[in-house]
Amino acid sequence: LSEQALCEKRERSKYGHSMVDSVQDLAADDLAAAEASVPPYVPAHIQVPEDFPSISIAIEMAEDGDVILVAPGEYRESISLYKDVTLMGHRGAPQDVVIISKNATTVTFCARKGCLKNLSFRVEDTSNFFHCLVVESGEVEVESCELSGGAWGICINNRASAIVRSCQIHDNKGTGVNVYGGARLSLIESEVSANRGRGISVSDSGTAVVLMGNLIHHCSDGVYVYGKASLRMEENYVHSNQDSGVTVHEAGTSAVIKRNYMQRNGWGGVRIYSGASADVQDNDLQGNQSGPLAIDKASQAVVVVDNNQTAESLPTGLNSPSFLKMRQRLSTTPRSPLSSLPLNISE
Q1: What integer pLDDT is reported at residue 16 of this predicted model?
Q2: Which residues contact 139 (CB under 8 A, 6 or more apart)?
Q3: C-beta separation of 339 from 191 below 8 A
Q4: What is the largest CA-CA distance in the chain?
């Protein structure tokens, strides 16, 4: 479609006719009244590849508020999402709609507000420098997406804000999710796994992260917070990471850690040191190789520890309703071949 044809298609879908047709029939003195009576804008639905052959061209032709529907297939392009649109996979699972970049970041979000849904982002990168998704500004919602192969899975910085829900972030060459520079993130019911670096890294003053109901495993550290950032995490399952389940580091850094399961981690369940503050309550910290909790003298005065299970070995059964609910949800979530680590923690 040409730009003019797209405009007329959008107008006819909203009004039953194009504005070009209508305006030609109006007298000059009726134009003001006609403009006042124009209905509010209705977002257009643009289809790739039916309307445009690539996602980048669809974004260029879209207007703020439009919805870009991407059919199943592989799209080899690096995308700059600079308009306030929704980009979503259409008629398939996330693994069916794959955006692949070659030695470039797959998607850079720099709009005011937008949504990414039901897509897979992959990087083919020989330099270990480029990421699956970079959020540079504004507010973005990311739902039911898969991000793999990048230096980082998701990077959020420069005071941007993101809500990430029901995503799989795995097999990246460095950190799974990196949040810094005063950015904000809510990560909800997602899986962060098999990243060579940290699962989640949070740093810098003003940076704030909330983790709710996630599975974080087989990374170097599960969650690492430092540089005066803040963290709140509840009802997450953090296991089998090479170092600690959660590390809170440096004076001015703070964390609220409640009702989580942190087990089978190498350096311990929770590590707090160098004057960092934390509230650690009602967690199951059993079965970590170097112990449940490590708090140095500089942090002891500003750490609250209460009602945690801290046995050195795992119990024979885990019957917590919240844990069983999480395990049931994860066992029924479709997983791609790249994310094939077993979920059975009883092994």
Answers
A1: 47
A2: 112, 113, 114, 160, 161, 162
A3: yes
A4: 85
- Whether this model's pTM surpasses 0.90: no
Q: pLDDT of 139-152, one tens digit each?
A: 999 999 999 999 99
Task: Give me the pLDDT at residue 17, please.
Answer: 45
Q: Which amino acid would we find at residue 149?
A: G
What is the pLDDT at residue 125? 86
* Predicted local confidence at residue 122, as pLDDT: 98
Q: Which residue has the tokens 């019957």?
A: 319
Position of tokens 């990196």? Answer: 178
State the Cα–Cα distance between residues 190 and 273, nearest whole angstrom. 28
Under a CB-based contact definition with an 8 Å cutoff, are residues 158 and 136 in contact? yes
At 163 the three-state DSSP class reads strand
On whether the CB atoms of residues 49 and 71 are closer than 8 A, the answer is yes
Ranges of residues in the chain whose predicted pLDDT is under 50: 13-26, 315-320, 322, 330, 335-347
User: Which helix or strand (DSSP H or E) is residue 3 part of?
Assistant: helix 3-15
**Residue 238 CB burial class (10 angstroms; 0-12, 13-18, ≥19):** buried
> Whole-angstrom Cα distance, residue 57 to residue 59?
5
- What gap in Å lies between CA 347 and CA 343, rounded to an integer? 9
Between the alpha carbon of residue 221 and those of residues 75, 158, 207, 242, 270, the distances in Å are 33, 24, 19, 6, 11
Please say whether the beta carbons of 246 and 272 come within 8 A. Answer: no
- Calculate the alpha carbon distances from 330 to 14, 169, 342, 343 in Å: 41, 14, 11, 8
